[in-house]
Amino acid sequence: MHLTLPEFLAHAIALEREAAERYLELADMMESYRNDEVATLFREMVRFSRLHHDEIVERAQGIALPQLRSWQYRWRHPPEAGGDEAFDRGLSAYDALRYARENEFRAQAWYGSVRIAASDPELRRLAATFAAEEATHVQALDDWLARTPRPSVAWQIDPYHED
Ligand code: ZN
Q: Ligand 1 centre and the CA of 140: distance in Å?
């Protein structure tokens, strides 16, 4: 994906803002289920996303940023979780972690593809840094998924299983 630095910064800012908003929703949801452990994790992710957002905004000072369309940065539900209707019912902690994990992975893959295509060294450096950061988020969520019980009925067919 070949982007200019302003396009990249606009996208990164939107991704972090989106992540903070989704994690806040997930944290509130987990809190309402009295799942304080996972709620705490999601609140930490809100904090990291906001910090990162503010750093990128700072980096973008004085640069005119393009407008983006929401489909370019919105989080998506895994198809088996019911698409955009998924939040109408309660998500289990496992499903919530899975949802976050898939979207962190999309962000990581996106930064990685920008890095590969970038000819500007500064853009390549930023994309590599952000991809590495998203990789640590994916790993953190994978660690939680490994110790979170799966819901009994769902996930028998698992299109995301990677090994
Ligand atoms: Zn992330």
A: 10
The answer to whether domain 5-149 has CATH 1.20.1260.10 is yes
What distance in Å separates the CA atoms of residue 163 and residue 140, rounded to the nearest whole number?
Answer: 18
Q: What pLDDT, in 10s, does the model give residues 41-78? A: 999 999 999 999 999 999 999 999 998 888 778 888 76
Residues with Cβ–ion distance below 5 A, ligand 1: 104, 134, 137
* Alpha-carbon gap, residue 5 to 1, rounded angstroms: 12
- How confident is the model over 11-48, as pLDDT tens digits? 999 999 999 999 999 999 999 999 999 999 999 999 99
pTM: 0.83
Give distance in angstroms: CA of 135 to centre of ligand 1: 8
Report domain extents, the chain. 5-149
Burial of 94 (0-12, 13-18, 19+ CB in 10 A): middle
Contact, 21 vs 134, CB < 8 A? no
CA distance 20 to 15: 9
Decide: 74 and 18 in contact? Cβ < 8 Å.
yes
For residue 29, which of 97, 110, 85, 81 has the smallest C-alpha distance?
97
Distance between CA atoms of 147 and 24, rounded to whole angstroms? 22
